[in-house]
Design a protein that fits this description.
Layout: E1 3-4, E2 12-16, H1 21-33, E3 37-41, H2 47-58, E4 63-66, E5 69-73, E6 87-88, H3 93-104, E7 110-113, H4 124-132, E8 136-138, E9 147-150, E10 155-156, E11 159-161, H5 167-178, E12 180-181, E13 183-188, H6 195-200, E14 204-207, E15 210-216, E16 225-227, H7 232-244, E17 249-256, H8 263-269, E18 274-283, E19 286-294, E20 302-304, H9 307-311, H10 316-324, E21 329-332, H11 345-355, E22 360-363, E23 366-370, E24 378-381, H12 386-395, E25 402-405, H13 417-421
Parallel strand pairs: 2-17, 3-16, 6-7, 10-12, 11-13, 20-21, 24-25
Antiparallel strand pairs: 1-25, 3-5, 4-5, 7-9, 8-9, 13-15, 14-15, 17-19, 18-19, 21-23, 22-23
Bound molecules: shikimate-3-phosphate.
Length: about 425
């Protein structure tokens, strides 16, 4: 499906966004292995969390759902059953990596694989710690999916310092730790999103600048009522649309404001964005609020490097688009991880920015450009990457003649996105 984007002369009104994708995956998995009946309210209906749900169904979990409201019969820590067919993780890195953590500790064998994009993404990062715990887990010779996980009698706890900044790896190890003998401790130098810790009620401490979280094997996982806040990484596209399109004033409702996810707001405020948090409250252990965004005279350079990169990892494509309209330079460094996302996002961004007339420089670990006055339309290649498609969709509100090719990939995280833009 190709979508032609129309210039906008102003956006206004109130917007509801999908439930947070990261929290939705975790709620489905925790509910599946909990004792008793959990309910999940506001679960994302996007394709990625749906992959998690379908995998869990193949493992014997039943979900009753009405719209985004789920009732889940928890199977208990030892109650999942093996799937006769390989599990399908679709495009979802969170599904394959977190679920591998759960499956590594089971007394049955599993196979899990994804689509072409997911089957090219690195999995050694989960194999290494899971093997240290005693898991029998293998991928292809390139350490990619399909992943085979053989039954083992028991995993054992480990102390693990993360070599890459990754909430998916951290969560895979913590999930495996629930099935291991003894204590599993994960240390990370840069704190990545901490939803797993919060949702499992695990304590996190900072020691000498390093974040440390432990889980006790066999701990009781209680059924819960999960209330999923709106996804700030999805809101990011509407925020930037509201900032760059003249005469705009929008309110985005019930946005999750977990401090590990809000760095994008600071980055945008750094170039003069007017984003006000209103109606702020804490719901089910997560800070949420409404965001009031008005058209802003964006000014100045955006430089993303070091810790900041990990903190805005999913928002980099749309931050680059915001920067395009800020009359300054954009530069991102230390971002090799971007090459390992749903597409190689350094290559995808560079190619598409060139298509619309931006003089971009590509580095091994990032890219940079100076805002140019002479932007023009063109055919944007989504590379089947939802965040690339949506970022350039937003640019199309300001640049005439932008078409997004294979735009349906937006459904991975934001069903109905194209309706928001029209
Ligand atoms: C996620 C972690 C991040 C992020 C992804 C969701 C999660 O991936 O990019 O969209 O839910 O834990 P990494 O752990 O690979 O950084």
């Amino acid at each position: 499906m190709n979508i032609e984007i129309h210039i906008s002369h102003g956006i206004s009104g109130e917007y509801n966004i999908p439930g947070d994708k990261s929290i939705s995956h975790r709620a489905l998995m925790i509910a599946a292995i909990a004792d008793g009946v959990s309910t999940i309210e506001g679960c994302s209906s996007a394709a990625d969390p749906l992959s998690t749900r379908l995998c869990l169904e193949s493992l014997g979990v039943t979900f009753d759902s009405m719209a985004s409201h789920y009732r889940v019969e928890g199977r208990g820590l030892r109650g999942l059953s093996g799937s006769r067919k390989p599990l399908k993780a679709g495009n979802s890195g969170t599904t394959i990596r977190l679920l591998s953590g759960v499956l590594a500790g089971q007394r049955f064998s599993s196979e899990i694989a994804g689509d072409v994009s997911l089957n090219n993404r690195p999995m050694l990062r989960i194999f290494e710690p899971l093997r240290l715990m005693g898991a029998n887990i293998h991928g292809t010779k390139n350490n990619t999916a399909p992943i085979l996980i053989d039954a083992v009698p028991d995993l054992h706890g480990i102390e693990y310092t993360m070599p890459v900044s990754s909430a998916q790896v951290k969560s895979a190890v913590l999930f495996a730790g629930a099935f291991a003998k003894g204590t599993t401790t994960v240390r990370e130098k840069i704190q990545t999103r901490d939803h797993t810790e919060r949702m499992l009620g695990l304590a996190t401490a900072v020691e000498d600048g390093v974040w440390k979280t432990s889980i006790e094997g066999g701990m009781a996982i209680h059924a819960q009522h999960f209330l999923i806040p709106g996804d700030i990484s999805a809101a990011a596209f509407l925020i930037v649309a509201g900032l760059i399109v003249p005469h705009s004033s929008i309110r985005i409702l019930n946005v999750g404001l977990n401090p590990t996810r809000t760095e994008l707001l600071h980055v945008l405020k750094g170039i003069g964005a007017s984003i006000e948090i209103v109606n702020e409250r804490v719901l089910a252990g997560e800070r949420i609020g409404d965001l009031h965004v008005v058209t802003s005279d964006l000014q100045g350079d955006m430089m993303l490097q070091g810790e900041t990169v990990a903190k805005v990892i999913d928002e980099i494509p749309i931050l680059a688009i915001a920067s395009l309209f800020s009359k300054g330079t954009f530069r991102i460094k230390n971002a090799e991880e971007l090459r390992r996302k749903e597409s190689d996002r350094i290559a995808s961004m560079t190619a598409n920015l060139r298509t619309i007339g931006v003089d971009v420089e590509e580095y091994p670990d990032g890219f940079g450009f100076e805002a140019s006055g002479s932007l023009h339309g063109g055919a944007i290649e989504s590379f089947d990457d939802h965040r690339i498609a949506m970022a350039f969709g937003v640019a199309g509100l300001m640049i005439p003649g932008i078409t997004i090719q294979r735009a349906e990939c937006a459904d991975i995280s934001f069903p109905g996105f194209w309706g928001f833009l029209h």
